[in-house]
Amino acid sequence: MSTEKQTLRRILDRLFVPLTVGPTLLWIAAIIVYPTAKLLISSFQFRNPVTNEMEFVGLRNFRRLVLAREGGSATFGVFSPEFVAVTKNTVVYVGCSVTISFLLGLGIALLLNKDLKGRGWFRTAVIVPWILPYVMSGLMWRWMFQADFGAINGLLQQLGVISGNVPFLSDGGLAMIALIIADVWVFTPFIIIILLAGLQNVPEQLYDAAEVDGAGRWSRFWNVTYPFLKPSILVALTIRIIFDIRALDLVWVMTGGGPGKATEVWASWLYRTAQVFNSPGPGAALGVVLLAVTFAIVAILYKVFGESPYEA
Amino acid sequence: MSKVELTELVKRFDDVTAVDGISLEIPDESFTVLVGPSGCGKTTTLRLVAGLERATDGEIHIGDELVNDKRAYERDIAMVFQNYALYPHKTVRGNMRFGLEQHNTPEDVITDRVQEAAELLQIEELLNRRPSELSGGQQQRVALGRAIVRDPAVFLMDEPLSNLDAKLRVKMRAELNKLHDELSTTTVYVTHDQVEAMTLADQIAVMDDGEIQQVGAPTNVYMNPRNMFVAGFLGSPSMNFLEGTLEESSTGKFELELGGDTHDVPDEFVDPLTPYLDDRVVLGIRPENIALNKDGVPANVHPATVNVVEPQGEKTILELSLDTGQNIKAAVDPDTVVERGDSVNLRFDRDSLQYFDPETGESLTHDSKPEQKVTPT
Amino acid sequence: MSTDSSKLNRIRRSLGLETQNEWPSVVRERLGTYALLSVYLVVIWFPIYYIFITSLKPTSEVLSLPITFFPQNPTVGNYVDIFVNRPFESYTLNSVMVATTTTVICVTLGTLTGYSFSRHDFFGNKTLLLSIVGARMIPPIALIVPFFQIMANPPLIGGLTGSLYDTRLALIFTYTFFNLPFAVWIMKNYFDGVPESLDEQARIDGCSRWEAFFKIILPMAKPGIAATAILAFIFSWNEFVFALVLTSSEAAQTLPIAVSLFVADDFVDWAHLAAGGMIAALPGILFGLFFQQYIVSGLTQGAVKE
Hints:
heterotrimer; A: mainly alpha; B: 32% strand; elongated
């Protein structure tokens, strides 16, 4: 090998890390760091309607949205009624759908973990709802719950459960339930996938040992399955929660936050806010709030369970 | 074929010193085994020779050439890894050819060499298979074959047998010996298994704590260890160490006071042990050099009680407590009739005794025995 | 007796049971498991079935009572209509272009970077990796405002491109934001599972770092790359929020937007929406049916999902 060729080769080898990592870092700087910085800046600005210039307004965007306006009504002391209502909806929506889909997903994962013929087919069939576009799923469920020609009204009537049509999506409480059902339908497969992978980590001999020890079904679950499944449960729950908080698709196409504000959650509120004002400030402020809430939740889960959900 | 020479070699990772200034000469055509417990720096040393790590300090010569700044592919070496590192997406033939192709070897040479190596290792019928279709032993052969086709100056082997089951390991050990007889390529072999080291090596280098403790022919190192680490590391069960105070008896002989029992020091050790008179000294005796006398023989025996009898087939291992309270192991003939709880007298083979300084661990008698010369087989 | 026992044996064999004396409880458990899973599958697949048959019904049947659960006059008319009356070919093309380009960018950068993170100790290695992974926790919707501003008036390249609003390029840039960190993370974890001794053997065999990567490691990483690619494609294909914010015409609107456009203020064209929805859902269904194992392995490597 000639020396020039060797030298070139050495130089190229030295540049391996810069050349393989550098472009990605630059790209991420452009596409994540820069927009995030811009978000923070915008959240402190408001477009002056007269001069059409962006002005620094301090915390006014946050105060206007989150805190009660001066002279206006307030709930929980300082928060604006709108913020409190939306937060309540979000907690109900995320809390119910995460809990239900977790329990359902755990059950199905345990069933699928058995040594069954055709297990692969069941698994494939179970996963599909999660792979569909959320918009399509949301509209599909809107169609299912449709008041006049929807399948659910049709089925319930044909079965004689109800006599007249139920307008699911125009009733505040029912709309929230419909939304939760759709959310559970979409995201349970995700729980199943993660938990099934976790279940595969449980050593077979431990089940045998537990059986020899005379452990019952519950005892086997708590003493053998659960300890091995715990990291997967953490990952599944963390991701499920933070992704549900930011999810707009289902809410937007199913109820649009309605009827009234009955199903308005943070994501839809943010989107509406960003559209309504002739200024990026308020929407950005809510974005900052959402960002902070997400990191707070991750930090809390991290603290409580003592391990990074991304590394479990 | 070349000798390899390491001079004052040092490798530091951040604040950990893995290799701490070792010097070692590996003669041309020798089979040198680096042996030691895990973390002793033996693998790092091998990787330094391979060019997979850069030395912090010191020199590495392959042949007469200083190779510190050479890349792995410029060093004329071939390596066999513990997990074989076969390319899973290439066939056996593809695996064996790859290194030659990368070095721009002419096609006819590649074909010939692969064929020859395959014949030598009896893997001709496997050439078109992929590694995942091979057994562990077959993968091992392919890894060897890949090294052989390169016809390098030095073979480097990093625990190549440790992933095989016990029976296969013994078989491959014999084959490696045969292969080395046939090819005579200088080989540096790393293992933590002292039996492997003893059977394969014509030169053994025992390492601990980043340093070479002793180098020499296997039997010599075994029979004549330089310190307590080497003495204890080689041999299974390991050498027994009994600590006592060296005293001079009324007759002018040396005795080791073991706490209620005394051990007479053979006369030839009086000279080297004289400076330790009235001081603490460790007696080393290998289990196989302990004989059992059930009926009392008056002189030079040590009364003990049998705690555990462990028949191993070709020998039986006894765990005993001396009446002084110290525990000791003995390897005796399998037909020895002995039971737990028996009181016995132990006789130490007086030609196989070793004495050590309890503080430094250094052998006090090492230099008084003749060194054996290392000759490549 | 003989007929009965042979029948029983047949059943037992078909259920995969070997031991004679424990069959009753095992059979019951197995049948119970099958029954539960089947009920679950019927329930979760029913909506898909229902929207599928809706797509095959003419509007007159869709909007008539009683509801039919089998189409009376199945027709592909809705599918034809949406391509004739609406620019569905543009929407489909946009979706394909955006998802494919995003996937190529993310897989390329993710593979190279993931490999370096897995193999090389370089300055700030851990911190950089953590921040890349942490970036995935940023809720994309929080950034709709700055992304809208940036795309409307791109910095640096703005003079060259003008506004990127309502272009596919805007979507591609944006989608890499949540797919690239994910790709880096999956690929890093994948390469962690490839023994480093293979790289070292390649170096001894005479490869430069680049050759070792391209000739040895990359061919072995195909399953990991497939998993990353499939997930990146699905995430991009399904994305809705940024498409809603950053596009306004058939020049860049993707299928999820196209489907949502069937919802007018007071009226929803369900028959055609169903047909559009099925087209939007098709890649997902196909990937799910044929590449399930890649999706599962990608997700469990990454354990993060949009």
